[in-house]
Amino acid sequence: MRRDVVCFGHYKKTFGSCFIGKDLETNKWIRMVSDKKDESLTKKDECLRECECECAKCYPMLPTKLDIVEMEIGKPAIEGHQVENRMFVPRWKLSGVLNEDFIENFFDTDVDELWIDDFSSDIGQNDIVPVQDADDIDSSILMIEADWLIISVKFEGEEFNKQKKRIRGLFEYKDKQYFMMIVDDQLEEKYTIMPEGRYEFAENKRVALCIQLDKEERDVNVINNSEGMYYSRLNKQIVGVIEFGSTIGIVPKGKSVI
């Protein structure tokens, strides 16, 4: 059965990309995966023309945030905490675009914290969930409204000789601050060409964040109560950033980036 799914998150992977959205009828999260090693989708997979053309001969039309995509929902491909995974089925079609006035209907409003808080990586803040504490997690995707968002652009990985410019988001949600990686491909394209620094995002708009728990990463430093310890961890990632509505306040000035 074909369903309409609205795109709230889209990001690059090693061999392609990942699509995250909500079924308009059931309001359930869906993460589309393939049978490749990194589960990524190719540009031809995601092309919205719904035709059997050779995308090498044309430019594929790819989904962006708020696009409503008509697609076949494949069989479940649950992997650990990522219970939303469904196998990709070819032939996607663009059926519309979600009006931003309706974004609030898709928020996960009963969320008091982002899964489990008070665990941080050596760079982030409240951006980690230790695997041994994740047994009770029954969803790996959330969408919330942040009070404000500051984007940090900085080169990372110098200590491993793998220097790369990355973007992270500092935001506040229910009186708690978070600082985590942003993998939203549209924001990466925009901000990684900018100089290192901090940038206030959407000064005159409200901000919706689609956040996921990524795959397990083993034996990395995690800070809890100022004590460095080693855990297998799940990384919180911002996979979609969406401006909507009108101004509801002023971003606090002088907020420090961890």
Short description:
Helix content is 4%, strand content 45%.
Order of helices and strands: EEEHEEEEEEEEEHEEE
Low-confidence stretches: 248-258
Query: What is Rg?
Result: 18 Å
Envelope shape: globular
Strand content: 35-45%
Mean pLDDT: 88
Your description of this structure?
With 258 residues, the protein is mostly beta strands. The chain has helices spanning 43-46, 185-191, and strands spanning 2-13, 16-23, 29-33, 67-72, 85-87, 93-97, 120-121, 128-130, 141-146, 149-156, 164-173, 176-182, 197-200, 206-224, 227-244. The strands form two sheets. Strands 7, 8, 9, 10, 11, 12, 13, 14 and 15 form a nine-stranded mixed β-sheet that branches. It has a six-stranded mixed β-sheet with strand order 5-3-2-1-4-6, with no helix packed on it.
